[in-house]
Amino acid sequence: MEQTPTRQAASDAVGGQGWRYLLGALRTSVPVASLGQAAEVVARPVAACGDDADGHLRADVRSDRVVLTLQALDRAALTARDLDLAHRISATVRDLGLRTEPEIGTGAPRSVQLLEIAIDALDIAAVRPFWRAVLGYTDEAGTGGPTDPIVDPVGQGPTIWFQRMDRPRPQRNRIHFDICVPHDEAAGRIEAALTAGGRLVSAADAPAFWVLADIEGNEACVTTWQGRDD
User: Fold this and answer.
1) On the chain, which terminus has fewer CB atoms closer than 10 Å, C or N?
2) Which residue has the higher pLDDT, 169 or 156?
3) Pfam families under this entry (predicted)?
4) What's the CA gap between 90 and 100, in Å, rounded?
5) 173 or 180: which carries more pLDDT confidence?
6) pLDDT in tens, 140-162
7) Per-residue pLDDT tens for 30-68?
8) What is the per-residue burial (b if ≥16 Cβ within 10 Å, else e) of 98-115?
């Protein structure tokens, strides 16, 4: 099995190429001027990846940007091959006079990111089948245990993961969003949320995650890859 790089090694290897490490994947954006240009852009990374394209590359094609994600899809994990593919893709995009970037500090609507939804439960194994069925989701690649995350099989919806509670918590939201952002975007995102009326609930586990809440106490976490290694 191909080696899985550490989070730090993955971030260091491709950060200068405009990619960011997010939840076991690499993600970047290519700003474009039209859907036609976007189609041309996405063809180049597919060609650059060759036979690895189907197993590693996902592309979200829009008229203003192409968002590219690299991950070994059969394992839902990052491999050394993905790092190599990121460099190949960035090089071929530059040949078009364009660039791969995380859209931080560029005036873009937001940076690249990944969204997860966390559901608190006393008995994860009991509630997981319901959410798997009602959402039309499936097991994450390489998993399938009674407490593991579930994912959209076509890769459009956010991953759902389950957080075990040690006691009932009435009058408190039990579903919250985890917004995984580039490590160099977290401070700006948190500042914006606080300026917009939010409050910081906890930074005890930062920089892995910060817990924020709106004025009514509904919580969300801003997360990064940092601070997660033992």
Assistant:
1) C
2) 156
3) Glyoxalase_6
4) 6
5) 180
6) 988 889 999 999 999 999 999 99
7) 999 999 999 999 999 999 999 999 999 999 999 999 999
8) bebbbbbeeeeeebbbbe
Amino acid letter at 167?
Answer: R
Q: Residue 170 is which amino acid?
A: P
Enter the DSSP assignment of 101. Answer: B
Residue the block writes with tokens 């959402």: 135
Q: Name the strand (E) or helix (H) holding 124.
A: helix 124-135
The secondary element (H helix, E strand) that includes residue 136 is: none
Cβ contacts of residue 201 below 8 Å, gap of 6+? 211, 212, 213, 219
pLDDT above 90 covers what percent of the chain? 89
Q: Is the pTM of this model over 0.90?
A: yes
Q: Domains, the chain, ranges and CATH?
A: 7-94 (3.30.1360.20), 114-223 (3.10.180.10)
- Could you identify the residue written with the tokens 């829009």? 62
For the cut 70, the answer to whether the pLDDT of residue 84 exceeds it is yes
Query: At a CB cut-off of 8 Å and minimum separation 6, what does 217 contact?
Result: 172, 173
Burial of 45 (0-12, 13-18, 19+ CB in 10 A): buried
- Is residue 177 pLDDT above 80, yes or no? yes
**Would you state the torsion angle of the CA atoms of residues 90, 91, 93, 95, taken in this order, to the nearest 10 degrees?**
160
Q: Cα-flanking dihedrals φ and ψ of residue 125, to 5°?
A: -60, -30
Tell me phi and psi for residue 114, to 5 degrees: -130, 140
